[in-house]
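Q: Hi! First time doing this. I have a protein sequence and I read that you can turn it into a structure. Is that right? Here it is:
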Amino acid sequence: MLTVYGRSFGVAPILGMLGALNSFDELQRSVAPWTSAMSELAGAPVTVAPHLLYGLARPCQSADDSCMIFLDASGVDLIEDYIKPAADRDMAVILDSQIGRLKPTYFIRRMIDAGYLAYPNVHVALDPEFATRPDQNMPGHPIGTLSATSINQVQALLARYVREEGLSHKKVLIVHQFVDDISDSWSMVPGKQNIEIYPEVELVFDADGFGSPNAKVHKYNAITDPMAYPQLQWRGIKIFQHNPYAPRFSDTPVMTPRQIYGLDPTSAGWRIWAAPHLVVVA
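A: Yes, that's right. Below is the predicted 3D structure, encoded as structure tokens:
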């Protein structure tokens, strides 16, 4: 799967590549070099998806504020504007939430109530970076966490929904992460060794964060380490292309598809240990 990250079409390109595009046709044209390279290297077809910032964290206004702005509360009709047009093009849609002060399961229930998850092409992502403590007013400062217990609760809710609704398709759950420490002295996912596997959910840990290819390969290999986390099956990496609106939030240089698939080394001679199943392009 190749997802293109941002708030939505034509909105806030500082947040990701999707905001610099205005339509599904532009999306398909812009990712054609990526999908061609990925399909050839993976030996499999590639599913493309707009990766929408469904729940955008913002500075907290009060002690009981959720610190969250929802995309569908800003006048966007997700079903008519994104989900159905994506399905017509054999694309997926990722609904990504930056958590704020809300419980992670809140976002799943909200999506279920809105009818989004009934569509087979709609999947979910969570971003621990912006999980916000009650005494914290600025999401992401300091960096937030999302425990294995919370991730398992989200998976359990998704799995139960798939079973109870008799859905024939699994749900993908993407968890972004850029700090990993198996000793749990500090990690964005405390207790990650306790992650459970649900047959109705495909859990993907996405190695997030911008930087050099050397740094990104080191991070990816740690976050998806099969020795530390033997139960995890699916892997992802986020690629930050040059963003003229936020040049410092760019990879320098951008990894090549052959580096992403572990076929070519970085300048330090490092290689990705096993190819990702998901590439997020921001």
